[in-house]
Amino acid sequence: MKFEIKRDRLLDGLNDVMKAVSSKTTIPILTGIKFDLTTAGLYITGSDSDITIQTFIKAEENGEQVINIFENGTIVVQARMFNEIIRKLPTNAVEIEVNGQNRTHIRSGKSEFHLIGLDASDYPLLPDIQDDHQFSIPADLLKSTIRETVFAVSTSESRPVLTGVHWQVKSGELECLATDSHRLARRKVTLQQLPEEEFKVVIPGKSLIELNKVIADSSQPVHIMMTQQQVLFKTEGILFYSRLLEGNYPDTSRLIPSDYNTTITLDGKALLQAIDRASLLAREERNNIVQLTSLGGNIIEISSSSPEVGQVEEEIQATSIEGEEMKISFSAKYMMDALKAFGGHDIKIQFTGAMRPFILNSVHDKAILQLIVPVRTY
Amino acid sequence: MKFEIKRDRLLDGLNDVMKAVSSKTTIPILTGIKFDLTTAGLYITGSDSDITIQTFIKAEENGEQVINIFENGTIVVQARMFNEIIRKLPTNAVEIEVNGQNRTHIRSGKSEFHLIGLDASDYPLLPDIQDDHQFSIPADLLKSTIRETVFAVSTSESRPVLTGVHWQVKSGELECLATDSHRLARRKVTLQQLPEEEFKVVIPGKSLIELNKVIADSSQPVHIMMTQQQVLFKTEGILFYSRLLEGNYPDTSRLIPSDYNTTITLDGKALLQAIDRASLLAREERNNIVQLTSLGGNIIEISSSSPEVGQVEEEIQATSIEGEEMKISFSAKYMMDALKAFGGHDIKIQFTGAMRPFILNSVHDKAILQLIVPVRTY
């Protein structure tokens, strides 16, 4: 294998692939990244066995020669070391050559590195994905859908299936839902050309967080393919594979209340900032609890106290308060996470009682639903 | 105590003082900061007992009213909490009021915090500094002098005096010197109006690093006052106190060789970058060693190898190589630290032999000297 490549273009590709490489892997070859040089261009693959990312750098892009190929071939090199070397090379022209015993030479300016590579035939193959359940979604819609749900996955391994986001295609809609049993985030997306048969999968939250870092903000479609064990997200130049979580995702439909005693409509951003301030004191206690109280004249009060440090209270002018008076305590963190999903728009909070889960919606549409279980404080 | 203050001006003051506050202190009141409100303005003090920083915010600055004072007074409040609260307040107008039992009220917009304060009379007094050995130095010269020496202090507590920088006034010069016994950094500064009598002190490296964060880049003078136990750095609006280290600083004058067998003159920046690259492989080994070899034609080679990972070599064109051929091994980290002190100018490296300390100077002047003890590699 021998080729010349522009350093900045190689770094872009490495940057994506490195997100799949973990230094904590128990499979030694996965500390490496695989290069496959073909006549068309260079494939770079990284994996931690849960996530696999492959990028492709075309030899020629828009009439510009990005890679000069002298001899095709494959190699695996230590990922972190290779990435740091490329980052620090003195010139933008890089020559990479592999000869006997996987010796890998990197040349740039007057600098020359000789690395001990590994045999690419020992590197795991890409997951085999049939186009069973295939559909596509614009990149920016996919990214916001992930952002609005993934924070609510469980971080505890006691019920592994809750560490993932439940994706379900049903009645012409994609529904993404996450819950850690203290709060729940749900996002519905209406898509054209969804697969006809219903299906549901659970995608690890960690995979979706990494996916969001790899996908560029754009309206370009991301093609999604599902099998029983794997999901593949495919964009221009990038393949992102994730394993799926096994086990049945719990039925959450009965968690969501259907009738309400109090409805508060207000500016989500003002509420977020007030809770952020109140949580400064709430954080000192272990539970991080703030209290919301409806007062007269469409005013609500956010308050918190810590016996050691002091108290805080703040009034917010709501747009409207309908129904019974309300006094309820909840986790400041869960509330802030939920409010951030609405991006600062006006929101509607619906309560059934101080001990019952309450829900948040945008006043504009019902695409996003956030549910929070309150905390008993007396 | 009761006053109104502009939030951004208060935050600036807090930002400086917080650098002295440690969460690891064993003296509970030092987790707090002290406020002294006088008719002239607000003094804010923070301390970890090694370093004490006091800032002063004038009530009126350039004809603008920064503080509206209703009632003078003093209070100590929990530093980290107070700072975070001020940072997150909803408006730029802040009212602070202390009433019975040190209850401290912070009001801004519709937000109101009530903190449990501490009695300011329990807060340690500022160190008592006489103007014994007083001189001044422009802020930017002070900052570069610190930067060029402080990195060489010892991080080991086995000889505590080596964790400080030795400052000595002698023959009309200020000499600042640090060594961890593997390398040495020395900076000489010629100053007008130095104290007439000679004196020497050892200032903790940690204090000088914090001082450099507090002093603004400018050519304004910093007034320096020394006693046996304390040093005070005084600028417009800021007092920075540090305790001094006890014990005799070793005589280092005999460490510095006086005659040399090989002198290499070259671009310090090119050498720094080559060593940075070579150290990528050197770092994999515990010792982080790179090798410098003089070749013919004014070329030097920087190289390094790691049995597990591979090798690297790079040639650099020197301006001149005088004297004997040289092959020497040293710590990449020490060499990079030393080269950074010269800010990328052309430098001169003088060697006495592969086993003897070597020194670096700027080709322009001798104000900075860096010395490195080589490593035996065979």
TrEMBL record, chains A, B:
Entry GO CC: cytoplasm; DNA polymerase III complex
Gene3D superfamilies from the UniProt entry: 3.70.10.10, DNA Polymerase III, subunit A, domain 2 (3.10.150.10)
Lineage top rank: taxon: Bacteria
Pfam families: DNA_pol3_beta, DNA_pol3_beta_2, DNA_pol3_beta_3
InterPro entries (UniProt xref): DNA_clamp_sf (IPR046938), DNA_polIII_beta (IPR001001), DNA_polIII_beta_C (IPR022635), DNA_polIII_beta_cen (IPR022637), DNA_polIII_beta_N (IPR022634)
Subcellular location: Cytoplasm
Main localization, broad class: cytoplasm
Coiled coil residues, start to end: none
A GO biological-process term: DNA strand elongation involved in DNA replication
Keyword Glycoprotein: no
GO terms assigned for molecular function: 3'-5' exonuclease activity; DNA binding; DNA-directed DNA polymerase activity
Ranges for domain DNA polymerase III beta sliding clamp central: 137-251
Keyword Ribonucleoprotein: no
Domain DNA polymerase III beta sliding clamp C-terminal: 254-376
Domain spans labelled DNA polymerase III beta sliding clamp N-terminal: 1-127
PANTHER family from the UniProt entry: BETA SLIDING CLAMP, DNA POLYMERASE III SUBUNIT BETA
Assembly: Forms a ring-shaped head-to-tail homodimer around DNA.
Function statement: Confers DNA tethering and processivity to DNA polymerases and other proteins. Acts as a clamp, forming a ring around DNA (a reaction catalyzed by the clamp-loading complex) which diffuses in an ATP-independent manner freely and bidirectionally along dsDNA. Initially characterized for its ability to contact the catalytic subunit of DNA polymerase III (Pol III), a complex, multichain enzyme responsible for most of the replicative synthesis in bacteria; Pol III exhibits 3'-5' exonuclease proofreading activity.
Protein family: Belongs to the beta sliding clamp family.
Protein name: Beta sliding clamp
Phylogenetic lineage: Bacteria, Bacillati, Bacillota, Bacilli, Bacillales
Gene that specifies this protein: dnaN
